[in-house]
C-alpha cells in the first residue's frame, strides 16, 4: 500500500493537463494505483497549489499524551487571507455515484470548532450531496462549510483556477447565507 509520501511524490510534477486526466480517471473509477479516495484528495490539493496557494498535504492529528490519532485531515490550504480545511469524498458504488449525507458535514463542523472561527471548511464530493446535507450546512452557525460537487471540480480544473472560485463561493455565502452555491456560470 502506498504512503502519503508516495502520493506526494507521484503528484508533485502534475500539471493542469495531468489533473484533468486524473479527474477523468476518478470519474471512470480507473485509479488502481491510488488507495480509495486518495486520488481526489491529492487532485484537489494539487489544483490549489498550481493556482498559487500554499498547501499542507493530508496528515493526522494525534493526542498529546497517548499518540492516538484524533483526526485525519485531508488537507489545509492557505491563500490571501483564507485558511481552508479540506474534506474529500469520492463515493462510487458499482459505478454509481453516492451522494454525501450529513455525517461528513458533522465531522468537519466538529474539526472546525477546534480551529479559529475564520477557518473555512470545504467538502469536495464526486457524487454530490443529499438534500438533508445541503439543508444542514446552511444552518450551521459559527462554522462556514462550502460544498463542492463534481461538475465544479471539473470546471476549476478545465479553467486552471480554483482560488478565484473559492472567493466567489464564499462571497455568495456571506451575502446570501447559502453554502452550496454552484460556481459554474449558466449560459
Distance between the termini: 44 Å
Q: Helix proportion of residues, in percent?
A: 40-55%
* Mean of all residue-level pLDDT scores: 92
CATH architecture: 3-Layer(aba) Sandwich
The SSE order reads HHHEEEEEEEHEHEHH
CATH topology: Trna Endonuclease, Chain: A, domain 1
- Contiguous helical run count: 7
Major beta-sheet overview? 5 strands, mixed
Strands across the major sheet, in which order?
1-4-5-8-9
Described by the principal axes of the CA atoms, the overall outline is globular
Strand content: 15-25%
Number of strands: 9
CATH class label: Alpha Beta
Which regions have little confidence, pLDDT < 50, spanning 5+ residues?
A: none
- The class by helix and strand makeup works out as alpha/beta
Q: Write down the Rg.
A: 16 Å
Whole-number tally of structural domains = 1
Structural overview:
The chain has 187 residues and is of the alpha/beta class. A hairpin with a 2-residue loop joins strand 6 and strand 7. It is globular and about 40 Å long. The chain contains seven helices and nine strands, in the order αααβββββββαβαβαα. The mean pLDDT is 92. It has one domain: Trna Endonuclease, Chain: A, domain 1 (3-Layer(aba) Sandwich), CATH 3.40.1350. The chain has a five-stranded mixed β-sheet, with helices on both faces.
Précis, in short:
With 187 residues, this protein is α/β, with parallel strands linked by helices. 40% of the residues lie in helices and 22% in strands.
Amino acid at each position: 500500500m502506498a504512503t502519503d509520501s508516495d502520493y506526494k511524490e507521484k503528484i508533485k510534477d502534475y500539471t493542469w493537463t495531468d489533473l484533468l486526466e486524473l479527474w477523468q480517471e476518478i470519474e471512470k473509477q480507473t485509479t488502481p494505483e491510488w488507495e480509495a479516495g486518495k486520488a481526489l484528495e491529492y487532485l484537489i490539493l494539487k489544483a490549489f497549489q498550481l493556482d498559487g496557494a500554499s498547501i499542507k498535504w493530508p496528515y493526522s492529528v494525534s493526542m498529546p499524551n497517548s499518540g492516538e490519532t484524533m483526526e485525519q485531515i485531508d488537507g489545509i490550504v492557505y491563500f490571501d487571507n483564507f485558511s481552508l480545511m479540506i474534506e474529500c469524498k469520492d463515493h462510487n458504488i458499482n459505478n454509481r455515484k453516492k451522494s454525501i449525507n450529513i455525517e461528513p458535514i458533522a465531522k468537519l463542523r466538529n474539526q472546525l470548532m477546534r480551529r479559529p472561527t475564520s477557518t473555512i471548511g470545504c467538502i469536495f464530493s464526486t457524487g454530490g450531496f443529499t438534500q438533508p446535507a445541503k439543508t444542514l450546512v446552511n444552518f450551521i452557525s459559527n462554522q462556514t462549510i462550502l460544498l463542492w460537487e463534481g461538475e465544479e471540480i471539473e470546471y476549476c480544473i478545465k479553467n486552471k483556477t480554483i482560488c478565484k472560485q473559492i472567493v466567489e463561493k464564499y462571497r455568495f455565502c456571506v451575502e446570501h447565507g447559502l453554502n452550496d452555491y454552484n460556481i459554474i456560470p449558466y449560459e
